[in-house]
Amino acid sequence: MVAPIAKSLTLEEFLRLPETKPASEYIDRQIIQKPMPKGRHSCLRYELCNAINQSTEPQKIAYAFPELRCTFADRSIVPDIAVFQWQNILFLEDGEVPDRFNLAPDWIIEILSPDHNANKVIGKILLSLQHGSQLGWFLDPSDRSILTFLSNQQPILMKNSDRLITLETINLELTVENVFSWLKMGS
Fold first, then answer.
1. pTM of the predicted model as reported, rounded to 2 decimal places
2. By three-state DSSP, how is residue 47 classified?
3. Rg, C-alpha atoms of the chain
4. DSSP classification of residue 66
5. Is 80 exceeded by the pLDDT of residue 167?
């Protein structure tokens, strides 16, 4: 995880700053720049967004946004994937997607990168669950596991052929093996 940027700003001041690449987050009155995504991270993010959106977008059930800024609870985070159920997306009058999402995603997905601090990443999932998220996934490509978080329940460590839990409205049948098989592109 990249060290915090030594500036104490309010959330409003932070949101007026220009966006950075990679994105910066505002957590506990600190600005923390996310590490640059690596290959496995990028591949998993793309494939998961694609799988979720293929399953949900045609019926307007939900949409998976990669690297979407979500601002709530005096914080502004950028989950690797933020999934919103269709009815929770506050579309503009013309039907377009809004630029600002001032709520926690219904489902937050984080992928551990070599430069990440696991507890800080899990902390974002827990924060989201405390503020309305129903589901969180924490993917660890190194040990091929997915830690699943449901509100008001103990986390569930999923491996191998375990069928992954999704939001009730989403009919997506994936196992942990399915997800990590997307990394094998060269064989």
1. 0.94
2. helix
3. 16
4. E
5. yes
